[in-house]
Amino acid sequence: MAAPRLLLLALALALAARWAGRADGHGVHPLSRIAIHRARVALDASSAVRASPELLGSRGEDTAWVTVEFSVPHASDGDWIGVFSPANFNASTCPGSHGSGPGPVICSAPIKFQFANYSSGSGKRTLKFQLINQRQDFSFGLFTGGLSNPTLVAVSNKIAFANPKAPVYPRLALGKTWNEMTVTWTSGYDSNEAYPFVEWGMKGSRPGRAPAGTVTFGRDSLCGEPARTVGWRDPGFIHTAFLKNLLPDKEYKYRIGHMLHNGKVIWGKPNSFTSPPFPGHKSLQRVVIFGDMGKAERDGSNEYQNYQLASLNTTDALIRDLDNTDIVFHIGDISYANGYLSQWDQFTQQVEPITSRVPYMLASGNHERDFPNSGSFYNGTDSGGECGVLAETMYYAPRETKANYWYSTDYGMFRFCVADSEQDWREGTEQYRFIERCLATVDRAKQPWLVFIAHRVLGYSSGFSYGFNGAFAEPMARQSLEKLWQRHKVDVAFYGHVHQYERTCPVYEEKCVRDGTVHVVVGGGGSHLTNFTTEVPPWSVYREMDYGFGKLTASDDKTLKFEYRRSSDGLVYDSFTVHKNKQNV
């Protein structure tokens, strides 16, 4: 009977992936609509494009607005302007190319683009672009022929930031012990060129310095297209420092820096964070959880039109409430770069106001990990050939081993068991043993609130794709894990993947019970929304097809409050409370 059961599981997984691709917004990446490998170069003296100012960030800014003036003699709706970085994007930059012979004439996709008809008027027209510091110079290409048959007719002058290598976009994360904070950032400095460090200390005290490790990767570290081809862009250098032996609930100041060989220090922006409470400490502790946010552009660039509609709404809502937030969990489908590496820089800049102040913890999703024959549990192409490399490198997580993107972390009264739904979680696997160990080893006297997290829905969802497969979850998920949740009295389980909000009653084996786990889908972070089943299952208490995020609040070991807030206004549209003394909701 083993072979038929495995066959049925494989068919169920294939159907789930197929329908998730239709129903969960896993559509075509906007940059992939550009057939850059088919581009022709036919420079036209009567067409022109110019960008100003030529020097950006002269006062240390890491973002800048650029005005692009252009003209084309026979304008059409198919004309568009792409932002390229590095500025030289001709055939000489193609892998293995010497600039001659057959093959593509442009080998890298633009960072972003706008259609020329976004500008009004005749003759010389203008567009506005917002650029971020991404370690290289920039130029703008004017194309005719639309996205399917692009012809390059004019190239702008080169522009650049004053220091393209500057350290940027710090990302905080919890370390492997409760009193450790990590700081990760990106720069253009190899450790052989400059010494990376974090200067840090409590407010009012003399700061010390923590050294940072440095990593990077090449095309060969990735597993497929477009990440290894038109989506490739040099990632620069990623640095991580460990700030240890923190005192609980104290404000710490920090800034990232690089010391050059001549002793000069290149500084990042000054920032601060509040250290975690010690385990079991009864204080106000607020946790934000959401998934599937992605990124968008504040300059109106249309690369993400109809792809991540509410990404900026969610980001801005979180920033507005940041003084009331202690830690953030982004539980999969992080940037939706899908193999276009430049988009990870864009994402880290978008969320930097959050990540520079509170720990920003990730879970792995299909758009980070999945690719055929790469070792992922699902055989889809959603990562675009990244195969987890970008997420694992750009953001720190306190994983047990580098090979596995699952981990446990404690924050005050909370224990979080973060699973990797893109790796096998079934009974008998290494990840199953981790989940069991994470749940079983929690000291409920110190961490009374036990939370399970995964990207795909391993518990309960009436999203259309999950209803279609009949399991209302990933196939075989509850059969493998539900007894663990019940045995160890998991309070709440969170998922993303389906782009909507839903919560259940305290449930066990599809029945509402007093001591069950509440399952919450918070997949409406930004990517376009997906439908529910027509029929509402009896365990589904509230469901909403809108953008939003979840927030847990605890101040003692008796009461845990949850709120669902919409991204559009930050207001509460659903809530529940777990009473530990009654073990019910």
SSE inventory with pairings:
Layout: H1 2-23, E1 40-41, E2 48-52, E3 55-56, E4 63-71, E5 80-84, E6 112-115, E7 125-132, E8 139-144, E9 151-155, E10 160-161, E11 168-174, E12 181-187, E13 194-202, E14 208-215, E15 237-243, E16 251-260, E17 265-267, E18 271-274, E19 285-290, H2 311-320, E20 327-331, H3 342-355, E21 360-363, H4 366-369, H5 389-394, E22 407-411, E23 414-418, H6 430-440, E24 449-453, H7 464-468, H8 477-487, E25 492-495, E26 501-504, E27 507-508, E28 511-512, E29 518-522, E30 540-544, E31 548-554, E32 559-566, E33 572-579
Parallel strand pairs: 1-9, 3-10, 19-20, 20-21, 23-24, 24-25, 25-29
Antiparallel strand pairs: 2-4, 4-7, 5-6, 5-8, 8-9, 11-12, 12-15, 13-14, 13-16, 14-15, 16-17, 16-18, 19-31, 22-23, 26-29, 26-30, 27-28, 31-32, 32-33
Helix pairs in contact: 2-3, 6-8
Summarize the structure in words:
The protein has 585 residues and is α+β, with helices and mostly antiparallel strands. α6 (430-440) packs parallel to α8 (477-487). The chain is built from 8 helices and 33 strands. Residues 1-26 have low confidence and may be disordered. Strands 11, 12, 13, 14, 15, 16, 17 and 18 form an 8-stranded antiparallel beta sheet that branches. It starts with a helix and ends in a 6-residue tail after the last strand.
Which key phrases capture this entry?
585 residues, alpha+beta, seven-stranded mixed beta sheet, 33 strands, 30% strand, disordered N terminus
